[in-house]
Design brief:
447 residues, 14% strand, alpha/beta, seven-stranded parallel beta sheet, six-stranded parallel beta sheet
Length: 447
């Protein structure tokens, strides 16, 4: 029976993949409608604080039932490393719960019974999914057996929407409630997927404050629980002496991205901007800070190819570099938001790779900005540039010159970044998620 279910799901997902081009064609005539919707949601979110979780998730809490066993059974799944860290923190915050999981060593160390090592071979993109298809099918079959033999009282799926939406639909058929932690960015790419998402999950938890308004607009119960970056910065602020050492000399920090392809496409343009600032201002220290030691050989090879021995490459935490920098050039993503949360004047960039990426940006993207800081504020608080041709770096350089020297422009950016910090709210994302789970499982009084 399980083999038949897996086969049927595989055929259905393959069919869905085949009709994606048709969905895109159907979307194009309505893209201006979806952009208006996104603009309305962002404007609404900019003027209204996120709703209280108890009120926002009222429908979800109404689904709660007494636990099946002596202790509530929670299933948690994470498909990649960052998601597993959130999942492991959640399990540690729920000592009275029996936890089973898909994940890896971090979840096992947190006390979960890991049924499948899902996070140890993270899958990215269609090509990666096809290469890992046998493993993905084994994971899904394992999950179906768990639903049949030891059904959880609640399933929490962390990020990783591709496989997790399929797993959520299986939960719906088995009448097991599903909470999705770290909502997918359907508000930016492919809002037509909201209908399927609404039919799969029972509630979603967002890490960006404007997202709740989007999901509620499509009748998905949603609550904002805070951004894990705020937690990380509050738990491990950069050393004051290290920050002072960076500030002792005007420093430009480069964050070209975390993936190999991102570094390859963004670093040459960033070096071009850095070289021009050095020529104009002389004593400019240029630092390429990176968290992943695995990228070091590639980065140093690129620096050598571009004759950039004047760039300092540093591995490890970014906090002191970002907080002490005079200016940061950051590829759009988590790194750019981290720079903004350190109150660093930041220019967000993304050089598109290939014709399809350029067409997608101009025709499919539904939000007016790509930088998380601008989306959170509902206006352009930091410059951002998304372009396909190398000439786009000339516009980046113009903004870099302005933010390096123009104190009035810098004060305006600082004010905008303070607004972003305020909108994100206080630390405690994991604590809030754990409180929601405890309430659902009947481990504390509902409020």
């Amino acid at each position: 029976m399980i083999a038949l279910q897996v086969t049927l799901v595989l055929l259905r997902e393959l069919l869905r993949a085949l009709v994606v081009p048709l969905r895109l064609l159907a979307y194009l005539p309505r893209r201006h409608h979806w952009r208006r919707v996104a603009r309305e949601v962002l404007d609404q979110a900019a003027h209204e604080p996120p709703a209280d979780a108890a009120a926002a998730l009222r429908e979800f809490f109404a689904m709660a039932r007494p636990p099946r066993g002596e202790r509530p059974h929670l299933f948690v799944s994470a498909g990649e490393a960052s998601g597993e860290m959130h999942a492991a923190a959640l399990v540690r915050a729920l000592p009275g719960v029996r936890a089973s999981a898909f994940g890896g060593q971090a979840l096992a160390a947190a006390g979960a019974n890991v049924h499948f090592p899902l996070s140890e071979h993270a899958v990215m993109g269609v090509g990666g999914a096809l290469r890992e298809l046998p493993r993905i099918l084994r994971a899904f079959a394992t999950f179906l057996r768990l639903l049949r033999d030891d059904p959880p009282d609640l399933v929490v799926l962390v990020d990783y929407p591709g496989l997790h939406v399929v797993m959520a639909k299986a939960c719906r058929r088995a009448r097991v409630p599903v909470l999705h932690y770290v909502a997918p960015q359907y508000w930016a790419w492919g809002p037509w997927r909201m209908r399927r998402y609404r039919r799969a999950v029972d509630a979603t938890l967002t890490i960006l404050p404007f997202e709740t308004a989007f999901f509620r607009r499509f009748r998905v119960p949603a609550a904002y629980i805070g951004h894990p970056l705020v937690d990380a910065l509050s738990h491990a602020p950069p050393d004051a002496a290290a920050v002072a050492a960076v500030r002792a000399r005007p420093t430009l920090v480069l964050l070209p991205g975390s993936r190999r392809a991102e570094i390859a496409v963004n670093l040459p343009g960033m070096l071009q901007v850095a070289r021009a600032l050095r020529a104009e201002h002389g004593d400019v220290r240029v630092v390429l800070a990176h968290k992943d030691p695995g990228r070091t050989p590639m980065i140093r090879e690129l620096l050598q190819q571009h004759d950039a021995a004047w760039v300092e490459h540093h591995e490890g935490p970014l906090g002191a570099w970002l907080q002490g920098a005079r200016l940061v050039l950051a590829k759009s993503g988590t790194g750019s938001l981290e720079a903004c949360l350190h109150q660093a004047p930041t220019i967000v960039v993304y050089q598109l790779r290939g014709l399809l990426a350029a067409l997608g940006y101009h025709n499919i993207l539904s939000v007016p900005w790509i930088a998380a800081a601008n989306l959170i504020a509902g206006r352009g608080v930091v410059p951002e540039h998304c372009f396909a041709r190398d000439a786009g770096w000339n516009n980046v350089l113009a903004d870099a010159r302005r933010l390096w020297s123009d104190e009035a422009a810098r004060r305006e950016v600082f004010a905008g970044l303070a607004e972003v910090q305020r909108r994100l709210g206080a630390a405690g994302a994991t604590t809030r998620v754990a409180a929601i789970v405890r309430t659902f499982l009947g481990l504390e009084d509902r409020r």
